[in-house]
Design a protein that fits this description.
Blueprint (H helix, E strand, L loop, with lengths): L2 H17 L5 H14 L4 H7 L3 H19 L9 H16 L5 H12 L7 H11 L8 H18 L1
Length: about 160
């Protein structure tokens, strides 16, 4: 994937993770800076990237939707159903990119969404399976493989 496309996906993923409370506003600003360095550009993105740490919590809610719109990227309102589903896919992208382990993906999905989001139900179930490894006959690598397969399925459906 070309660097600009990867930067756009990273920004969109971080934005949706921010919208469900999975990451901080400072992380969104850092990703906006990285997107500029990669060659993605718009006036709103430049303003977003210029936020200081102390400004981020206050300014990101207003600046992020406009910056994404200028770039033709999706913005999901805080805690919307579509946003929760996009967040699951964003976390799956992170795992497939090596930023999370399969176990970390399953735990984060289970903690954030429980068994309440049909799209993420299998990952929540797999987190439960990790918890009972000592009492069964499955190996961690088997569950890791299932989590990875589920992450691939989720990201290919998008």
């Amino acid at each position: 994937m070309p660097p600009i496309e990867a930067a756009a996906r990273d920004l969109e993923d971080l934005a949706v993770l921010w919208s469900v409370g999975e990451t901080r506003a400072n992380d969104v600003v850092r990703t906006a800076c990285e997107a500029l360095v990669a060659g993605l550009d718009s006036p709103g993105l430049r303003i977003l990237a210029a936020c200081t740490r102390s400004e981020a919590e206050y300014d990101v809610p207003d600046l992020l939707p406009a910056a994404l719109d200028e770039l033709g990227l999706a913005f999901y309102p805080r805690d919307s159903e579509a946003g929760r589903e996009a967040a699951v896919r964003a976390l799956a992208h992170q795992m497939l990119a090596g930023r999370l382990t399969p176990r970390e993906l399953a735990v984060r999905i289970h903690q954030r969404f429980g068994h309440q989001l049909p799209l993420a139900e299998r990952l929540a179930e797999l987190d439960d399976e990790y918890d009972i490894l000592d009492y069964g006959d499955r190996a961690p690598a088997q569950i890791d493989a299932e989590v990875t397969a589920e992450a691939r399925r989720l990201t290919s459906d998008a």
